[in-house]
Protein: 2-keto-3-deoxy-phosphogluconate aldolase
Amino acid sequence: MSREWIGRLGAARVMPIVSVGDVDAATALVDDLVAGGAEAIEILLRSPRAPEVLRLCRRRHPEVLLAAGTVINAAGVGLAVEAGADVMISPGLTPALAAAALSSPLPLVPGVQTAGDVMLAAEYGLDVLKFYPAEPNDAATILKDYANVFPGTLFVPTGGIGEAALPKYASLRNVLAVGGSWLHAGLLPGATRPAALSRNMSEARRLLGA
Ligand code: 3PG
Structure:
């Protein structure tokens, strides 16, 4: 499987996470995020219309790395593949999910917390992992240790992250990118949103040393 997506996610450095309620609202948010400079976006497959949003965004933004989030089972893998995602992200890892993902054409970034989680992922050949939920677990401190214990493994911390937390992750060599919804939290649709998103994206990249 090609690993060029890893370079793209690392270059993006920041990955906004979008939950889907209304299809038009979620699609408009993705449009504004792209206008604001997002190069990688995770769309959570947590609601019935989310695959439709992913499919629409695939057509509208072929240049953006689109991740299907909350892929927790074989059905989710099927939805992600069918919608045209580039990569799948899950909050954790099970043998059934690993089997479904490894027989699909898409890479999987499974969620981990413990050393055992990282080792289980490694047994399936998975070495780009989501650290979730990051902030409640002091991910930056743990990931500093994991850089020594698991030197070949890269992490994408997400969960509860905001701008103030970013400097902690900037210097960690095993942090590929950081994901979260803080980039668009509280921003209402309208003419000023793309500029606000652009500011948030630039500031996040700056704080992460991109
Ligand atoms: C998720 O998978 O739900 C996200 O990691 C949550 O990120 P957030 O805390 O920034 O919304």
Remarks:
- The radius of gyration is 16 Å.
- The mean pLDDT is 97.
